[in-house]
Amino acid sequence: MSPAGLKTWEDAVLWLRAQPDQQEIVRAAYYDDPLPVVAARYRDSLEWAAVRQLLPDARGKSALDVGAGRGIASFALASEGFSVTALEPDGSSIVGAGAIRELARVSGLDINVTQDFSETLPFPEQHFDVVFARAVLHHTRNLEQAVREFYRVLKPGGLLLAIREHVISKDKDLPRFLDAHPLHRYYGGENAFLLDTYIQAIRAAGLHLVRVLGPLDSDINLAPSTKHSVVQEIARRLSPGRTGQQLIERLLTAPGAWPVLRALLRLVDHRPGRLYSFVAVRT
Question: Is the pTM of this model over 0.90?
Answer without folding.
Answer: yes
